[in-house]
Amino acid sequence: MSHQNVIDFVERRREQGHEPPDLGQGSVLGVLPVPETGAVLMIVGYLVPAGGAADAPEQPVAALQRRAAAGEEELVLDRAARVARAGGEEIELTFREFELLDYLSSAPGRVYNRRQLMAAVWDRYDDEGGRTVDVHVLRLRRKLGRHAGRIVTVRNVGYKYQPARRR
Question: What pTM, to 2 d.p., does this model score?
Answer without folding.
Answer: 0.59
